[in-house]
Design a protein that fits this description.
156 residues; 4-stranded mixed beta sheet; alpha+beta; 2 domains; 6 strands; 13% strand; two-stranded antiparallel ribbon; globular
Length: 156
């Protein structure tokens, strides 16, 4: 092959490669639409109470003796602080209801407003806000949590 022909073949091959890789780059940057099967699924937390997140939070706190608003679920916590609270509740042997704040941005922001507490996880016992991970851990260590759980009737 002559040098000019080699140069032309190389330019054509480069253009062809760039043309094929452009859609991949666009997809990586989110330029092209993602198929619905692969889009993240987010469910609305407050479907039952006319979309009122604060009312739904209150209903859930009232419906369960021990509630933890957490990142992840009790069987698969998605942050160390949420995991610590789950382990404490398991160590105390009490059943509790966990709500995953990562599943709905409205819940994640709503629980912070509801409690006027900026961090997650948040623990409620018999409708009373206990606190986050640090508070729950301290109460566990000094025995206050066990006493509170006994007074609430969820621990013997």
């Amino acid at each position: 092959m002559h040098m000019a022909q080699c140069s032309m073949v190389l330019r054509l091959a480069t253009r062809s490669t760039l043309a094929r890789s452009a859609p991949l780059a666009q997809r990586a940057l989110g330029v092209r639409a993602m198929h619905d099967d692969f889009k993240p699924k987010v469910k609305a937390y407050a479907n039952d109470v006319d979309g009122d997140v604060q009312a739904q939070i209150q209903n859930d706190i009232d419906a369960h003796p021990v509630v933890v608003f957490m990142k992840g679920v009790p069987d698969a916590p998605m942050c160390g602080f949420s995991n610590t609270v789950v382990q404490i509740m398991k160590a105390e042997g009490v059943p509790f209801k966990g709500f995953n704040v990562l599943a709905d941005p409205d819940l994640r922001n709503g629980i912070k407003t509801f409690s006027n507490w900026p961090t997650i996880p948040q623990v409620y016992i018999k409708g009373e806000f206990v606190g986050g991970c640090d508070t729950t851990m301290e109460m566990y260590k000094n025995g206050e949590l066990r006493d509170m759980l006994k007074e609430a009737g969820v621990k013997e």
